Amino acid sequence: MKNKFLLLAFLLVTFTSLFSQQTLQEKLGYSKDAKLLILHADDLGVAHSEDSASIDALQKADVSSGSIMVPCPWFSEIADYAKKHPDADLGIHLTLTSEWKYYKWGPVAAKDKVSSLLNSNGFFYTDLDSLAVRAKPDEVETELRSQIEKAIQAGVHPTHLDSHMGSIFFRKDFFKIYLKLAHEYHLPCLINVNAFKLVYGVDVSDLITDKDVLTNVVYMVFPPGNIETRAAEYEKIFESLTSGLNCILLHAAFNDDEMKAITQDHPDYGAAWRQADYDFFTSDECKKALAANNIHLVTWKEVKDKLMQ
Amino acid sequence: MKNKFLLLAFLLVTFTSLFSQQTLQEKLGYSKDAKLLILHADDLGVAHSEDSASIDALQKADVSSGSIMVPCPWFSEIADYAKKHPDADLGIHLTLTSEWKYYKWGPVAAKDKVSSLLNSNGFFYTDLDSLAVRAKPDEVETELRSQIEKAIQAGVHPTHLDSHMGSIFFRKDFFKIYLKLAHEYHLPCLINVNAFKLVYGVDVSDLITDKDVLTNVVYMVFPPGNIETRAAEYEKIFESLTSGLNCILLHAAFNDDEMKAITQDHPDYGAAWRQADYDFFTSDECKKALAANNIHLVTWKEVKDKLMQ
User: B121 contacts in A (CB within 8 Å)?
Assistant: First the structure.
């Protein structure tokens, strides 16, 4: 009997050890050196133009995931879509800024509970610096929690968390809250230790636990970008991807009156810049380039279901 | 000496008596039976399309006044215009509803201070009935006061108050708050006793004081309306106006992607309906019809400056 227990213990240890040696790709059911990619549409809920282009790209094309800005004027549209499409891979694009000059939004939490996050007009700050200087961490947590709760209440089944404009990666104490919420809600969250260090000068490596899923590469076309060479740029990125979990953050919207109005004085991240993403990621060229580079599209939902339970 | 005082007193009484016999038109500097008209653009701040069409109509055409929806996403745009154009005749379109399906807004006050005005998603109710049944008067006052204060803080010099969707005319206790705020801020507010009785079934006649300015006729093209006959409809109204202070509530916006998106499932009050107002009120036909009917355009600012001091 004792030997049986010892054998079982040995097998368990061996199995656990084998499992822990598995690459993230293998844990997700792919080959050891598979190149996995999440094609992720940011900024859902910001505008009807963004919602309709992104939904189109999610439904008809290869875009695998998206995330929702809960405080924005068109949140109800994308929440309704999420409710009607429970398998859609939609997370929360946690939002602490309101960056357009005239088209504004404020917090989900009561304003008097999160006043350190707001300018004198009751909106989120336009820029990351103001947020980093003034925001109190407990109020950041209150607001982020309110956004997640509001999304769930509206029928969204969030598959992951990430951060609009990377505002959460700008201060280490904000990032701690982000991790805490991800663990509490059993959700994967976008993490790329090197990128955070490089872009925001914040080293979060000591906060990462074995609960957290790290991305290999997170890529985004920074504005203004050359619209004419957008396809070539993404194809080059596809070619450069290596094995592991990679993520491309795209911004799909139409170059229409609504998106032009929102971005009227700020062509960076503007309507044409977003239309170019929509055009590439709904093209046959994109499909062919993904296949030619043996890239497997995956979702945050797969990560959540296979790695977070 | 006593006689001099008696004479002065007599003259004062006579003057006051003569003044009180003056019609509102005369008090404003017009002839006794002048037909005065405020051409008033509603819903500023709701969308860029509405802002740009209404500003165009205010600057280039005969539209004399407008009012601003402070809780809406594009409030900052019209507030900035108001700040840069301190003589523009802009009031506060006090807002307690968020009527579009997917394009939503909530209160200016902290949500926990005005929870009876909000649905479970933290937005104003879509309809007047929900508001009338659930709203607590003290929370209505808190929210309306917050809207006025936010507008002033953002640089708006409000010339008057009125009510989006007439939500304030729907309950007599709401109307009392409206009057109280108008008196407190020394602003005229839109009142038409007969219309409120007819449309909302609320008799406010016993609340009116000599501080309040009553309109003779308040007219609005109710949807769907026939766009083809819009000009003829307004011309008929011009012809029917009688002496006194009249008001036409119009809704100028462009029939563009943004306004179509907002009104997508609700063509009543939609983009084409608003474009038809813009087209008529910026036309030569409108100018000619106003002149042909001896109509004098006036502003709420004139009413405020000449009657409220």
Answer: 76, 150, 153-154
